[in-house]
Automatic annotation (TrEMBL):
The chain crosses the membrane at residues 16-48. One of its GO terms (cellular component) is plasma membrane. It comes from Romboutsia weinsteinii. This is Cyclic-di-AMP phosphodiesterase. The lineage of its organism: Bacteria, Bacillati, Bacillota, Clostridia, Peptostreptococcales. The keyword Cell division does not apply. Belongs to the GdpP/PdeA phosphodiesterase family.
Amino acid sequence: MRNKPTFKINMPEINIYIVIIGIISTIMIFYNLYIGCLFFFGFIYIVFHNWRITNVRRKEWTKYIQNLSLDIDETTKKAIMNLPIPLCILEFDGSISWYNNKFCDITQTQDLLGMNIDSIVKNLNLRKVLNENKEMYTDISFNDRDYTVVYNVIKNEQGKSAKYLMMLYWIDKTDYLQLEKKYKDERNVIVLIQIDGYEDVLKSASEEKRPLINVEIEKILTTLEVNSKGALKRTSKDKFILIMDKQEMKKLENDKFAVLDAIRQIEHGNNLPVTISMGIGVDGDTINENLKLANGALDLALGRGGDQAVVKTKDKFVFYGGKSKAVEKKTKVKSRLIGHALREIILESKQVYIMGHKYPDMDAMGAAVGIYDICRSCDRPANIVLDSSNESIDEFVKRLNDSEYYDDIFIDHDEAIKNCTRNTLVVVVDTHRPNYTECEELLGLSEKVVVIDHHRRGVEFINDTVLLFHEIYVSSTCEMVTELVQYIEDDVKINKLTAEGLLAGISLDTKNFAFKTGVRTFEAASYLKKVGADTIEVKKLFNSEVKDFITKADIIKSTKIINENVCLAYSTEEMDNINIIIAQAADELLNIKEVEASFVLGQKNGKIFISARSLGSINVHVLMEKLGGGGHIDIAGAQLKDVSLKEAYRMVQNIIEQYIEEED
């Protein structure tokens, strides 16, 4: 409803009326003396009366204010004396000049006048208060209670001089802090648990023992659930979720997550140790936020190598457990587990033979030398099986033979076969195919074969291995061996030349870090550089002769473009290093615009070598597999026997055209 407008007339003060009357009486004197004088005397009376009334009122108001001040002072004194908050007044030297009853109660002392506050309560920084022009707060503990002490400096006027005092208010916040602590201790904590390398651990044990491993894991985690007064739920075959209070989580932290050690003690015939990774999300605003924090913590635990617990809050991480580092499939857990198992197998062996594939390249030779250094760190004799060198590794082999560190490192086929026994450890690197190995006969003589490879699995495979490290997503075998060196044990040391061989192998298979290069690849290269690898010396390992450049130029000249995006080329020259030259030519052909894949053929000693490269859109592994070869999606190869170069060229061309038709 609308309000009606109101009109208010502001009347002027009485003094204005008196002035007006005075002016009017003065004017009237000029017109009528008698009447004017009468009005003037009336004006004088009004002025006197107004002065007298004003004076009386001023005296009454002053008296009222004085009485009110006295009442307030008296009330203030009583209020301060009976204040429910402890209060004391100090001189600047710390002596107590006044206090109330509550202060006596907290100090449990009656006569406090003149005593110095430092003799009663420690940790009061009075000097700091003097340097501040504002209220200050200090939290202290006194007589098993927690207080916030408020400092306030007051000025007391005493004539011409002034005296300064400090008032200390003692606010008891013990109950609040206890309630806050209880609230924080009872907040939910989410723990995500994952069994590291679950499938590999189970496969490392006999089939009848695998259920025992599962039972033991669940038993330990159930004990953790009971002890932490939490709730445990298995979400998949290798993952669990545990919800507990923060107070119980702190107990786990105080014990340094002893459950990690308990899990590691599980042994039921498994060659790989059982370990878990734990991600703990805590102090999130909601349960959902704690779950996100736990997921991030678990990812970090796995990325650091597993076998550890990571506690994550919104602003920090805390790590407990393993010292391992990290995998492309999010974790390097498998590298650590394989490293641990490989060390145990090496320590159980009296002799170790290491071999790569036939016509070894720097990836195979670098990885072999890396395993050799691991064996030396384990104080076990080792040899690399190599019948003859080739141009791709000649420079590196020469450096190895010239170094006293690698004295008698190489052994030929005949001597290896002669000395190999059932207990000899044979480590195969950079291949998993028996007929591709340097000396296939050793696989039949030894019952302890370890395979370390990064190529896609083909039809042929080395069976009955005691340890298999096969990761197709890794850039090179040298990268895998570098990770083993890092995570196998802290005391494993490698020679500078070994580091350069490993770095050369990584550079070769990644085409100078252009293909199949992940975060792990750069971490491995960084580690090798840190332990002494010289990149200039690595580059020298790949220096070529002038005739090699001319051959590559002839190959590029022979190139045929298929479907506008596939290059097919060949070399008629028979050279010892033709397999290296055609590989380099295949890499060069990928520099042509719109070319997605390249295939280059060469011949040597009655064999046809094929190198295939791709930018990823064409799966060259599938194509080479049809010719009995293999490799990766973007780098692959094959070897053909009993066919001419012309026939092999036609076979490759037919396979390419067939692939294109199927894709269309």
